[in-house]
Amino acid sequence: MRIASVNVNGVRAAAKKGMHDWIAASACDVICLQEVRAPLEITAGLIGEDWHVVEQACEIKGRAGVAIASRTPLTDVLAGVDALGGTMDEPVHTGRWIEATVDSPSGPVRIVSVYMHSGTAGTPKMDDKYAMLDAMTARLAVLREDFDRVVVMGDINIAHTENDIKNWKGNLKSAGFLPEERAYQDRWVDAGWVDVHRSLEGARPGPYTWWSMRGQAFDNDAGWRIDYQYASPQLAAKATAVRVDRQASWDARWTDHAPLVVDYAL
Hints:
Elements: E1 2-7, H1 11-17, H2 19-26, E2 30-34, H3 40-47, E3 52-56, E4 66-70, E5 75-79, H4 81-84, E6 97-102, E7 109-115, H5 124-146, E8 150-155, H6 179-190, E9 194-195, H7 196-201, E10 227-231, H8 233-236, E11 239-244, E12 260-264
Parallel strand pairs: 1-2, 7-8
Antiparallel strand pairs: 1-12, 2-4, 3-4, 5-6, 6-7, 8-10, 9-10, 11-12
Helix pairs in contact: 5-6
Keywords: Hydrolase, Magnesium, Metal-binding
Organism: Demequina litoralis
Protein name: Exodeoxyribonuclease III
């Protein structure tokens, strides 16, 4: 089973720039999308008629939005506050979490698409990020109890270690690399979640999944690894290959992220 995650940075724009070519070539069974910024009927239509698609749109027009696209039917869909509880029904938190189950030859697999707040240090936006990180951490514990095979993926908007950001020294006080944010990922790993990308790549700089559209960040590979697949140990043990589908050149980019693709032997 090939599972991918990508922040499309607006599904309408991505479709115009080359998203369809990537979908056709990727041979994925499941794709989690973040920041679709469109209602379900638009997202599903742009992904294609051969896919089953579920989505939680953001209540704030033009922002966020998460979706799961699968070659086979999706069941037991939960989104937003129904999964995360608490204050996650506030408009600012909508369009950021959706989960569903897909079948595999080895049994059901729980799939989660998440789009974490980016946050801005020292502002209320950072409070929103920490609130969602708390809710996500609580949900992760429930998912581990309820499902043997589960993978939580998406744009977490945090570079976990120095290997996950090119210019780590210059970003020690920046949202996305604050010690308080990175500590959440430490907790997830300590609880048994496996960062599949890093586990297969090993401890080395990169490969990054996001580069600013400004300047020479992409050409110089001055990126951040902020897109992840966190899998339960049972599922992570079945991961056989990982790749980042980095576009060949700056002008070939259809999003400011690159898809993270993992193969699982199921």
